[in-house]
Amino acid sequence: MPFHLLVAYYVVDHAFVNNTKLSKMDDKKLWTHFIWVVLVFLAFTFDVFLSNPLGILLLILSIGVTVTLDMGRKKLSNHLIEIIAFFIFLFFTLLGKSYLSRSFVTIEFPGIFWGCLPQPWASRIF
């Protein structure tokens, strides 16, 4: 199964950013983060999502949900945000499954990325 959107979210909010500090960032750094959000989602989905209406809708929703959740970190706990994000992006991934399986970004690539990302829950278990 292609997990492009779910992995893109985790790359955006975990790979190069300390997501616990997003609520404390000044506006300039937050806008830089939002540009990063757009670029990462485009990198994972540009070849299949930009060529059809449902793909464009999923791309816009993914970017919008990520930005909204990042702004929501000021009011909601980080754990709740991560749980909400996981289920939303899993749902979006399921909606775009038929498109993402034909992507230049192979199904295995997000899986490899998934293994390289720091898992937010791992520090609480081990």
Task: Produce a short descriptive summary.
This protein has 126 residues and is mostly helical. It has helices at 4-15, 27-49, 53-72, 78-95, 97-100, 108-116, 122-125. Residues 122-126 have low confidence and may be disordered.
Structural overview:
This protein is an all-alpha fold and 126 residues long. Helix content is 71%, strand content 0%. The chain has seven helices and no strands. The protein has helices spanning 4-15, 27-49, 53-72, 78-95, 97-100, 108-116, 122-125. The protein is globular, with a radius of gyration of 14 Å. Residues 122-126 have low confidence and may be disordered.
Helix fraction by DSSP (H/I, runs of at least 4): over 70%
Any idea what the shape is? globular
Q: What percent of residues are in strands?
A: under 5%
The main β sheet shows up as: none
Order of helices and strands: HHHHHHH
The overall pLDDT, averaged over residues, is: 80
Query: If you compute it from the alpha carbons, what radius of gyration comes out, rounded to the nearest whole angstrom?
Result: 14 Å
Distance between the termini: 28 Å
The residue ranges in which pLDDT falls below 50 over 5 or more consecutive positions are 122-126
Class based on secondary structure composition and strand pairing: mainly alpha
Count, helices: 7
What is the strand tally? 0
List the keywords.
126 residues, mainly alpha, 7 helices
SSE layout and pairings?
Layout: H1 4-15, H2 27-49, H3 53-72, H4 78-95, H5 97-100, H6 108-116, H7 122-125
Helix pairs in contact: 1-2, 1-4, 1-6, 2-3, 3-4
